[in-house]
Specification:
Number of domains: 1
Structural class: mainly alpha
Radius of gyration: 15 Å
Distance between the termini: 29 Å
Helix content: 55-70%
Order of helices and strands: HHHHHHHHHH
CATH architecture: Orthogonal Bundle
Mean pLDDT: 95
Number of strands: 0
Largest sheet: none
Number of helices: 10
């Protein structure tokens, strides 16, 4: 399991530009979470973040959300890439497929997935559209505005607190991770 192969898989299976950027954003947040929670698993957590939406362009899972996750695992197994722990976390990030969150890895991916889109949405309403302009206070404030980025799963983001991480600390960790790759994100 290595990042170069994961990037090759992204480039082979995902053509939607914003999903590619989202994948890199989730990778960055997952690496930051791993450094905080399970440093020995940073590579696996990062790669899971990178690949969690690998099925985005290969299956019409939007009409059947139960396919999202299992289809990614099918792709990964066909490529002989990953392990059962990673497969479970990728499936668990989408509760619609029936996979239950069982551990820190699962919970981290479940929370990291929506916060990247949420932070991106905040950056895009700033005049300069730069991620570096976003403040943690803006993230916590916007969480209360349910009409802002209404599709962002706030329950999933807030679930990071089940790992003993305060939401504002998670917002800062996520924002800092995304700022580091702002050029890749185009923000």
């Amino acid at each position: 399991m290595n990042r170069e192969k994961a990037i090759e898989l992204i480039n082979t299976h995902i053509t939607t530009p914003h999903i590619i950027k989202h994948s890199y954003a989730v990778e960055s947040v997952m690496r930051a979470l791993a450094k905080k929670i399970e440093p020995e698993n940073e590579e696996m957590w990062g790669i899971a973040g990178l690949l969690h939406d690998l099925d985005n362009d290969t299956v019409d899972w939007k009409s059947d959300m139960s396919l999202h996750g299992p289809k990614t695992i099918e792709i990964l197994k066909n490529e002989n890439f990953g392990n059962e722990e990673m497969y479970h976390a990728i499936c668990a990030h989408n509760p619609c497929n029936g996979t239950k969150i069982q551990n820190k890895f699962d919970r981290a991916l479940y929370a990291a997935d929506p916060i990247t889109g949420f932070i991106t949405a905040i950056a895009l309403v700033y005049p300069d559209k730069r991620i570096s302009s976003v403040k943690v206070k803006s993230i916590t404030k916007r969480m209360k505005e349910t009409r802002f980025a209404a599709g962002a799963n706030r329950e999933a983001m807030k679930s990071i607190e089940k790992l003993g991480i305060d939401f504002s600390d998670f917002a800062k960790l996520s924002l800092d991770a995304m700022v580091e790759i702002g050029d890749i994100l185009g923000l």
